[in-house]
Design a protein that fits this description.
Layout lengths: L15 E5 L18 E5 L7 E2 L11 E2 L17 H21 L5 H24 L5 H10 L1 H15 L12 E5 L8 E6 L2 E4 H18 L5
Antiparallel strand pairs: 1-2, 3-4, 5-6, 6-7
Length: 223
């Protein structure tokens, strides 16, 4: 069974619902004894999910504490691990994948578009991670977006690829992504038309990464 899968077990729907977890959740056992079956109590309403203790009859189990009722199941999730630094690392990784895809002769056009959209979505999302992680004030993030045209184009691509339509564009609500044939022995060149600008895809991505890295450095944030 996958470490992130819960076993099939009946769930009692009463005032205190009891779920039996037979394996570890996100790679960490929920109880101290290695061979014991941890049993946890889940309050029936979000307002009561401040503290979760061992279920009745369970022995040797350490109590679990939920920091916030709005942070998901027991506040444990792999996507939150590392905070904004983990999101920044995702941006760097998607950038590397985009570069390899555009340079690789075996990548399909669909794969290259996928990597571009994934990069832009994660690149723009770093703004929200920094804001919600209280790492940088919101007004300073707004100034960065206003002053950097590449990040604004990245924002339009992120929102346009997620929602199809853009109600409040930063540069161009009807931007275009295209490719130019460069010959049989050379990878095709991808470009973006946003407003009056014709932008090379890899150049845009590189400038976005540089903008974030300079911004983090200027604010004393190590990445």
């Amino acid at each position: 069974m996958s470490p992130c899968c819960w076993p099939r077990a009946p769930l009692k729907r009463d005032r205190w619902s009891h779920a039996v977890a037979q394996r570890h959740f996100l790679g960490c056992y929920l109880s101290a004894p290695a061979m014991a079956t941890p049993s946890i109590s889940i309050p029936s309403t979000p307002a009561k999910r401040k503290r979760v203790g061992a279920a009745d009859g369970a022995k040797g189990h350490q109590p679990l504490v939920v920091e916030s009722e709005h942070m998901g199941y027991l506040d444990h999730s792999a996507h939150k691990a590392g905070g904004w630094k983990a999101q920044a690392d995702r941006v760097w990784r998607w950038h590397e994948r985009l570069v390899r895809s555009c340079a690789g002769p075996t990548s399909s056009p669909e794969e290259r578009v996928d990597f571009l959209l994934a990069f832009c979505q994660n690149c723009y999302a770093l703004r929200d991670w920094l804001k919600n992680d209280a790492a940088v004030p919101k007004d300073e993030l707004d100034v960065l977006m206003q002053d950097n045209e590449c990040l604004r184009v990245c924002r339009d691509i992120a929102n346009g690829s997620k929602h199809l339509k853009i109600d409040r564009p930063s540069v161009d609500p009807i931007f275009s992504i295209g490719r130019e044939y460069c010959g049989a022995e050379r990878p095709e060149q991808w470009f973006i038309i946003a407003g009056d600008n014709l932008l090379d895809t890899l150049d845009l991505a590189r400038k976005c990464v540089n903008a974030w890295q300079n911004f983090l450095t200027d604010h004393g944030l190590r990445f």
